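Technical annex B. To support the medicinal chemistry partners, we prepared a structural model of the target in complex with acetyl coenzyme *A, based solely on the information shown next.
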Amino acid sequence: MSGELYRLFYPRSIAVVGASRDPNKIGHILLRNIVSGGFKGKVYPVNPSTDTILGLEAFPSVSSINSEIDVVIVAVPAEKTIEVAEDAGKAGAEFLVVISSGFREVGRIDLEKKLVEVARKHGMRVLGPNIFGYLYAPSGLNATFGPREIKPGRIAFITQSGALGIALMGYSTVEEIGVSSVVSVGNKADIDDADLLEFFGDDPNTSTIILYIEGVEDGKKFLDIASTVSVRKPIIAIKAGRTDVGAKAAASHTGSLSGGPALWEGVLKQAGILQVKDVETAFDYARLFETYSVAAGPSILVITNGGGAGVQATDTLAENGVLLSEPPEEYVNYLRTFLPPYASTRNPVDITGGAPDEHYYLALRKALEIPGIHAVLVLYCQTMTTSPLKTGEAIVRAVEESGSNKPIVAGFIGGSEARKAIDYLIQRHIPAYPTPERAAQALAALYRYARLREAVKRRLDLLRLSGEIHSKIPGELRREILKK
Ligand code: ACO
C-alpha cells in the first residue's frame, strides 16, 4: 500500500509536542495512549521544561531530536503552533497532527491559514487543528486523548466532531464493534474527508467507512473521490445539519460550509453514500456490512413468531424500497408438514408465538436451501414457552449446516435473555438487533447500497466515456478509473 497519507497511518517515529508532566493534561494523555497502545515505532516527548516523561527521554524541540520524525502531534496552545510547525518542518517531519483549538472555529482564520502556509512551505500535511487525534489499529497507534481500549476491527470512522468521536470509541467497545481507525478531522484546514476516504478506500484493513460530516470546502473533490470509493466499499454518512436550524449550528461548530439539507442529500446519493440520521443506525449498518456486502437477489423471507414484529419489519423494508414477495410453493408445502394449521405460510412466515427452537431451525434451514429465497430476516419475540438462546443456537445450527452465504439478519425482541442471544449471534457473525425495525432497516441497507453502487458505476462509466474524470482525483484511484 502507498499513497500520500501512508506515513500518517504507518509512522516509524512520532514526536509529541506539549507532552505535559501533568497526568491530567491532554499532551500527557496523548503520550500515554501512544506508549501503552502497542505502537512499535519510536516515540519522542517534546517539552522544554523536563528531561523525562513516562520514562522516555524528553527533548526541548522537534529539531533537537536529531532523528527522522514522520508525525508530529501538537498539543500546545494555538499561538505556539506556528513556531512548532516551523521547527517540525526544519526537522523534516511529514505530518502535523494539531490537537489545539483556537483557530477558525473561534474566528482565528488568519492563524489557521498561517499554520497551513508554514506546513506547505516545508512539504508537511496537517491533520486538524481542533481535533482529539487519530487511531489506527493495524499500527497499534492510539494518538488520541480518548479511551485507551478499543476493539480492533474493520470499520474506519472519520469524524468532524471530536466529542462524538470519543463517545463512539466507547460505544463501539461496549457494542463489540471493531474499528480499524478513528480519525478526528476538526477544522480540516488541510487533510479533509476526501483525502481520508481515498486512504481508507485503498486500505485492506478497512471494509466499511463511517463519516460524521458537518460540511466540506471542496464539494467536487469530495463527490469524485467518494464515488470511486463507494463502488468498492460501503460509506455511511451521518450528515449533521439535516434541518435548516441544524445546518446553522453546524456552521458555527467547526466554521465549515454546510450547504442546505436538500443539496447534501443529493450529493451523498450521487456519491453512493448511505445517509443515516443517527450514530446507532450507522453502526447497525456497519455491523451488517462487516459480514455481508452483497445481496444475492431481491427475494427476502421474513420468519417470525410474532405477527406484529413481522408487520413492523415489512413496513420498514417497504419504506426502504424493499418489497416482500410470496414464498415459493415448495417452501410453503414444506412448512405445512410441521407448522400448526393456524400458522401463516405467507411472507412474513408466522411460525406462531409458541414456536419451539426446532421450528426456527427447520424453517430457516429449508429457506437457505431454496434458490428462490435470497436473504432471510429472522424475528423472535421472547415468550415464557421459548428460550432466546436456544432459538439463537437453532439459527446458528441452520446456517452452519447449510453452508449458505445468503444474508441472515436477526431481530430478537425481549429482555436480558434476548440480549444474551443477540450477543451470541453477533459473536457468530450473524448481525442481530433488539428490534424488528432495526433488523429490517439494516438488511434493507444492503439493497440500498447495491442500488446506489449501480447508479455510481453507471455515472462513472459515462464520465469515463466522455473523458470528464475530474483532475482533482489524485494518485492511484484516478489511474485506476482511467485504465478501466
Ligand atoms: N514545545 C513543547 N512543549 C511546550 C511548549 C513548546 N513550544 N510550550 C509549552 N510546552 C509544554 C508546557 O510546558 C506544558 O508542559 P508541562 O505541563 O509539563 O509544563 C505542555 O507543553 C502543555 O502546555 P500548556 O501551556 O500547559 O497547555 P495545556 O495543556 O493547558 O493546553 C492544549 C494545550 C490542550 C492544546 C489546549 O491549548 C487546547 O487547545 N485544548 C483544547 C483541545 C481540544 O479540545 N481539541 C479538540 C478536541 S475535540 C473534542 O471535542 C474533545
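Notes passed to the chemistry partners:
The first helix runs from residue 6 to 9.
The two ends are 20 Å apart (CA to CA).
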